Structure formats: C-alpha cells, structure tokens
Amino acid sequence: MSSGNALQDLADRIVAQAKPGEQVEAYVSRGGETSIRIYEGEVEHFVSAQSESVGIRVIKEGRTGYAYAGTLDESVLSEVFAEARDNVQFGSVDEWAGLAEPDGVAKVPQELWNEELAHFPTAEKIAIAKELEKLTLATDARIRIDDANYDDAYGETAFATTSGIRAHGRENGCYVSVGTLADDGDETQTGFGFSVGRTPTEFNLARAAREAADRATRLLGATKPQSKRTTIVLDPYVTAQFLRVLSSSFSGENVQKGRSFFAERLGESVANPLVTLIDDPTNPLAYSATDIDGEGLAARRNVLIENGTLKQFLHSSYSARRGQTKSTGSAVRTGGTPGVSCLAMQLVPGTATQAELIAQVSDGVLIQMVQGLHSGVNPISGDFSTGASGLLINNGQVGAPIREFTIASTLQRMLQDVVAIGGDVDWLPMSANGMSLVINDVTMSGA
Amino acid sequence: MSTLSELVGKETIEKVLAKGRSTGAGFSEIFIEDKRSTSAGLDDGRIEQVTTGRDRGAGIRVVHGETTGFAHTADLSESGLLQAAEAAAVAAKQGSGGVVTVALGGIDRHQVNDVQILPNEVPKTRKVELLERANEAARSIDQAVVQVSAGYGDSVRRILVANSEGVFAADDQVRTLFRVSVVASGDGGMQTGYDSMGRTIGFELFDLYDVEELAAGAARQAVTKLKARPAPSGALSVVIKRGSGGVLFHEACGHGLEADLVGKGASVYRGKVGEMVASSLVTLIDDGTMSGEWGAIGIDDEGHHSQKNTLIENGVLTDYMWDYLRARKENHRQSGNGRRQSYMHLPMVRMTNTFVINGSSEPDDIVKATKNGVYVAKLGGGSVNTASGDFVFGMTEAYLIENGEITEPLREGNLIGNGPQVLRDIDMLGNDFAMGNPGTCGKDGQGVPVGDGQPTLRVKSLTIGGTAA
User: Fold this and answer.
1) Chain B: nearest CA to A420, how far in angstroms?
2) How many angstroms separate the first and last alpha carbons of chain B?
C-alpha cells in the first residue's frame, strides 16, 4: 500500500515488520531551517540545514522499549528497530501501556503549509533581515544592534502504528527578530522585537523595530525599587510566559502521578471568574497550531478553565487508559515516548487596551520582562518567584523605570488574584497567546 | 564501533575542506560527530522504558571575511559531505574563488578524561537496577514521600574536527549521569527535592558515588521543605554552601567574560581587563582539562586543546574566553572554549568547568559571623542579561540564618543581583572547595555540559525574591 508520500510509506514499512504479539509505532520526521544573522549591515552567519529522525516504540506484554536515530538511513533503521526490541525486556510491566487507537475524531483542516515561503528567494530573506536592522537603528540614536535575524523552518511528520493509526502532517513558518542595546554613559539596557508569519510578506518590521528600541530605551536610568506588596500589569509577552508555566499542571499524567496542584480540584473554582483558558491547536492564529498530536490523533480544542472553574485535564492515550477516559489529543513528543502538554494555550481576552488597564491602577508596576522562570517557579508546589524589569505605575500613569527586582506569589494565588484581562491579544512565536494581564497582591522584592 | 577517521577518510576530508573554500572563502572546517546514548527512566514505581539513541553527522563551516556559512548533513558519504560543503560555501559568499587544495598531517587524538568502564559495555539490567535502588531509598526516608522519578543517562560522543589551517583532531567524550526528583506531600501542599551527579567518566561513576545516598538526600530536601516558611523579601546577607553556588559565578560574570558577547559590546565587563572587577578574595578559573569533571573535554569543538584559563585573579580581570572566530578577529590566542551542542550547530564561546578557588575562612565561621541572612544549600538554575549585568538564580534548598545559626527551612525562590556589584560584595570565602552538580548551560538555543564549583562563601547583600515581609 503506497500513500504517495515517502515519509508515510517509510513509517508503514517499519510497522509492517512487527512480529506477532508486538505493538509497534513508527514516528518519522524530517525538516529543515534557514537561519540568517545580520550584524552591521553584513551577513554574520547563514545556516542552511536539513535534519531527519526516526523513533520506534515497541510494546510487548505490557513492557515498553524505545530507540531513535537522527537519520533515515536504511542501514541505521534496522539497528534502531533491534535496539527498541532489545530495550523492551528492561521496562516494567504497565497494565496501561499501549499505543493510541483511531478514535474517529476528524482532523480540523488547517493551512499549515505555505507555498510562498517554501519558494521564497534567499536574497530576499537576507534583505528583510538587513532592513530590520536598518529600521531598528533609525528609531533612536542611543540604539545599537546586538543582532538582527531571519529564521524559517519546515517540518514533516508521519506516524504509523500496529493499532491502525496513520497520520501525516507538514508545516512551515518564519519569523524575524532583533536584539537591541541602548547606552547611556556606562549603563546599557537591552530589548528585543520580533514578528511572526506563515510567510515573510506577513511581517510587520516597523513594529518589531519600534518595540525592540522602546524596550531597551525605556529602561535607561532604571533603579532598584523598594520591596512592597503591589499590583502588576504583565505585558502580553510576559503573560504568555506565565501561561506556559501553568501548562504542566493541566497534564492528566501529572495529576495521576501526584505532580499537579490541580489534582482533586475538577469542578472547583481555581481562578478568578474572569479567567477562561483553553488549549486550542486548531486555531490557525496560534503559532503552534497543528492538526495532529504527538501520537497521530487529531488535535482538538479543549477548555481547561471556564469562568474560573477547572473543567478538565489533558490526556494522551496512556493517561486516558489509566484514568478510564479518552485521549484529548494532547500527546507531545520531546525526543522520546509521548508525554502530555498543552499545545496552544489561549486566555480568552477582555476588551480593554493596556493604557485603559493601567489607568485603573493607582500604585503598581508594568512588567516588561521576566528573567529566571525556569529557576524560580516550581509548578508542583506552585511557588512563583522571578526576576523582572519594568515601569512604575502611579495614579494610572506609567512612570520611572525599575530593574533588578523580583515578583513573587504562588501560581494558585495569582490565578485567583487576576483582576483584569486586556483585549490586546498578541500571537507570539510560542505555544501560548498573550495580552495584558493585571494581578493583585504580588510581592515585589528590591532594595 | 569504527572510529570516525575510519568512517570518513582523510582524503575525503581534504576534498571537503577544499570544496568549502572553492568560492573564495579563507577558512573551511568540518566537524564530524557520532554520538550513542542510552537513557532509562523510572517514574511512579515503574521503569518506564530504556531508550537508545544514535546521532551521527557532520557540520561544515565556511568563513569568508565577516560572513560564516554553515550546513550540516546526516549523510557521511563523500558525495553527501561535498554537497554540504558546497551549500556552506555558497551561503558564505556568492562567487568563485578558483581551485583550492588542503593537505592535513596526522590526526591529533587528545584525551584528558580517563574512562575505566565504557557504559555501552555494561548490561542494561545494571543501569535499570540503579533506578530501582534509588526509588526504594527515597521512599524509605519518610511516609510523606509520594512520588519519585529517577533517570540514568550515558553517552559516548566521538568527534573529529579538521580545518583548512591544518587542525586535524579527535576526542572521545564519555559522560554518565544520574538524577533523582522527589515529591513530598503534607498539610501545606506539595514540595520537591532534586539531586544529580554526573561526570565525564564511564560506569565507574557508581563506584565513586552512591545512588541511595543521592536519592535519600533528595527525599530529605522535599520532606524538610514541607515545614518551610515563605522566603524573605528584600536584601539580606547570603551564605552559599560549597559546591552549590558555582552557578552564581557562571551567571554573575562567566557569560559576561565570553569574548563574542564582549566583542559586540553586550557585556558589562567590556574594556575591563586589568581592572578590579571583584573582591580581592576572588580568583576565577575556567578549566576544560579537569579530568573527569562534567565540563572536561580533550579538545573543544573547533579542535583546539582544552586549557586551564585564569579569568579573574585576586579580583583583577585577566582575560576573557575565546573561540576561533573571535580570537582571529582580535588577534588573540584561542582558549579552548569554542563549543557546540552537536554537528547541527555552529560553535561559539562557551564555558567548561568554571570555579572559584579556596579562600581561608572556616565555613562554620562564615555562618557564625552572619547575624541575619539566608543559607543556601542547593541552588537551581540561573540566567543573566550580560549587557546590564542583572542576573537571577534559584534556591532549591535554603534556610534562615538567625544570630549566626542556621534555623528554619525556606520555600523556593529566585535571588537577583547585578554581576559587578555582587562580585565586589563577596566578603568571606571558605577553605572547603567542592565542585557542584552537573549542569547544562544554554546560550543562543544550544545546550552544552558545564561544571562549576566554589568554597562556602558570603555575599554581603543579595535580593531574595520571597513573599515574607
């Protein structure tokens, strides 16, 4: 049986070699990227790269083995299959071990592949990055450029399993980014700006340049604030990072294994009633939009929190079997066997602009950047502490810049302390959207 | 397992390097890598699975003037490599530079790490047993331990680097790692504990260290934190236990001493060589030659021998760290710091093992001399903005210091400081040097293994990012 697609055929061919009593999954992918960095008007580097990989999962009598290789070379494929088979004997028997099975949910048609990008001339990509550097430099005399970048990538994936899954997907996308340095005497502050698109013609270079310059220059002269309890207004980019930190707590597998503070809270109020949070990879506006999950099932829209109430957890086929429920199409592959994660988190926006939100704050801080989310936030205990920089808010007006401080609370409390959600939605190059978000009663630590 | 020089012959490498220069480029380089890895994970009382992986390919770099072209391929045949070399050459410069020939001498096999037991020669059952032992040890510490996850990993990374300037060198890098994370549950919610060990050695790691002890330590950390109070908010004296705070130097100044960032004017330490940049107590070294340490390498990923480099001596900045490109641009010697995550990545300036050498204080005296402060026994990760110098790092196990004594455990949080200020504020340095946990340093999207270390020390004032007034 030929699908007319080489990658799908390869996956099918691997699975056809399964022996009686073996469940086998083949996950094959290939992709490529172009990465162009401009510095002082010249190409600093130009990377043109292709990669491919194969992962084979074998399950026998409840035991799982896995092996992968960074090549689709035929000579290596047989080695990978043999290794996966050999690895089976060392896994523990797990009654819920198994592959995904076709569940009848149809893929939501999406345009994830852009032909214009696939054939976009290299010289024009270089010209775009040079233009971004030029535009950014022109915004302000205090601005220097750290780097200006054009990046694009494409990827193609195919799944096949002995349980009857056959799925194939491909997507491409591109973005530009610029890092800035703003100087004032001995002091240097940094900023960044970017623009994302399915094709370079969707870029807004002027906005990326302006944001990169503004972020750096408005921090010049920043001082360390006094410690106090305060209200924070998160910039859209920071809100998206905050949402990502919450992601693992919605994983059904983490709930089953006692690693989510949402365990036992289904149907209860876990956030301010303003908060409705969904995971929707079928929304084409999301950068991480996809039509299949990490097991080849159709990606789908899942409501996580509705008007403050915890509605459901996310599942792969493993956690679904274990929890006697159905997969939510939320399997992810980060190099090995499937895990569970949010794919494209979206907080349902309000209507106010950032300026209107700030006007409601008598005493607070606009958080422009956070630093150290990976080291200061524990998604299991919920402890939240992060380095930050931003601008003071006095009587509804943005004032002096501040830096070298932290903001701290717990994730549980921050969800309850959300007091306003902006309408200024931004679709960022990450798996969450962003908008301005106002949170009360956060501890700011400074001098 | 055949060596890389058997897999790709010298004549082929010479042809590839010549092809790389065929559009007029002054420099071409081939980096070949063959990495085999094994990992095994235990979670929720079960061995989830054993995974084996193979990553093999070559990255070809061509430098023309200020422009670098780079292409990589998993196809190690001569035609595959020549195709990648052409792509890199075209990327670096459109045009023709005529015919170039490159001739290499004998291969330089430089090893600093002594491996006793190659991990791929150890039966997988023995690797899996370690996980089960760790699981049992952690769970036996306290009823409050509700979840344990343990991971074993080893890798054998063979690299070969050759360039048009005659570098032709190879290294085998063998690393073995073990980690345990624990969740404990109590009235106030859940807390976590974590510990890891890893060295650039083989399976003999487990003759040197005990997985039960590691697991028990992680479990105690989680259980102790169940009684933890919120960390303070604001500036306090901070004492950092030996071997746990190297990440402070990694962030406070390590990244800022990388010559690529300095060269772009994106470091607070630019133009500061010869100046006092730290307390006179501080001598900071980056040493890729420390046999067996997590960041130890025979050669860097540009084929240059690893070195021991003094960065700060008695508080005075002596030098930055360098890679090929930056050294060439500024007419400086390379320092063995050109590293990359894999053949799919461009090399750049990276740390290896970065540490502060001993001072003279007794560690107990440092705590006794501190009236009120925080004692940090385990640090998590960190990050830095090298241009402003502001950096953060997480504390995963910390206690209050009250009247010169270590008292109550604290919940987690970040600490924040400004690099140059914190280096000046180090006012006590212990005599009990130790290396810390194995780390992965991220820069520009690439992760490489790094080590760090330091004796017990005190920073006069750091901002603690807790919630308690």
Assistant:
1) 22
2) 61
- Which of chain A's residues have a Cβ under 8 Å away from the Cβ of B233? 227, 406, 408, 443-445
Of A194, A216, A238, which residue sits at a domain end? A216
pTM of the predicted protein model: 0.94
CB spacing of A87 vs B46 below 8 angstroms: no
Element (H, E) at A207: helix A205-217
CA distance A27 to A66: 11
Task: Count CB-CB contacts under 10 A for residue A193.
Answer: 27
Cross-chain Cβ contact B72/A181 below 8 Å? no
Closest chain A residue to B235, measured at CA? A447
Domains in chain B: boundaries: 4-34+53-109, 119-225, 233-465
Type of residue numbered B212: E
pLDDT value, residue A117: 96
Question: Range with the lowest mean pLDDT among A44-53, A79-88, A290-299, B458-467?
Answer: A44-53
Residues 6+ apart with CB under 8 A from B386: B255, B256, B258, B261, B266, B267, B268
pLDDT band at A243 (very low <50, low <70, confident <90, very high): very high
Question: Looking at CA atoms only, how far is residue B301 from chain A in angstroms?
Answer: 17
Provide the number of structural domains found in chain A.
2
Residue B421: which pLDDT band, with cuts at 50, 70 and 90?
very high
Does residue A270 share a domain with residue A145? no
Sign for the pseudo-dihedral over CA of A245, A247, A248, A250: positive
Q: Which domain holds residue A38?
A: 6-216
Contacts of B380 in chain A (CB under 8 A): 375-376
User: Which of A49-53, A225-229, A363-367, A403-407 has the least mean pLDDT?
Assistant: A49-53
Does the ipTM exceed 0.85?
Answer: yes
Cβ neighbors of B310 (< 8 A, separation 6 or more) are B283, B284, B285, B318, B319
- A47 and B52 within 8 Å at the Cβ level: the answer is no
pLDDT given for residue B99 in this prediction: 65
Same domain, A287 and A147: no
Contact A278, A301 (CB under 8 A): yes
**pLDDT tens figures, A7-17:** 999 999 999 99
| Dihedral, B36, B42, B43, B46 alpha carbons, nearest 10 | 130
Average pLDDT over residues B215-229: 97
Q: What is the pLDDT of residues A105-134, one digit of tens each?
A: 999 999 999 999 999 999 999 999 999 999
Mean pLDDT of A309-329: 98
Any residues with CB less than 8 A from the CB of B59 and at least 6 apart, and which? Answer: B30, B31, B33, B70, B71, B72, B340, B342, B343, B344, B345, B346
* CA B467 – CA B412 distance, rounded (Å): 10
Cβ distance B67 to A68 less than 8 Å, yes or no, reads: no
- If you classify domain B119-225 with CATH, what class do you get? alpha beta
B105: burial class by Cβ within 10 Å (0-12, 13-18, 19+)? Answer: exposed
Give mean pLDDT, residues A204-231: 97
Distance between CA atoms of residues B78 and B32, nearest Å: 13
Could you say which residues from 56 to 85 on chain B have a Cβ atom under 8 Å away from some Cβ of chain A? 56-57, 65-75
Task: Note the maximum CA span of chain A.
Answer: 73
Q: Pick the residue of B31, B268, B388 with the most A CBs within 10 A to test the interface with A by mutation.
A: B388
pLDDT in tens, A51-98: 999 999 999 999 999 999 999 988 889 999 999 999 999 999 999 999
Residues, chain B: 469
Question: CB-CB: which of A189, A258, A382 is closest to B388?
Answer: A189
**Whole-angstrom Cα distance, residue B160 to residue B345?**
15
The reported pLDDT for the residue numbered A391 is: 98
Query: Is A372 within 8 Å of B189 when comparing Cβ atoms?
Result: no
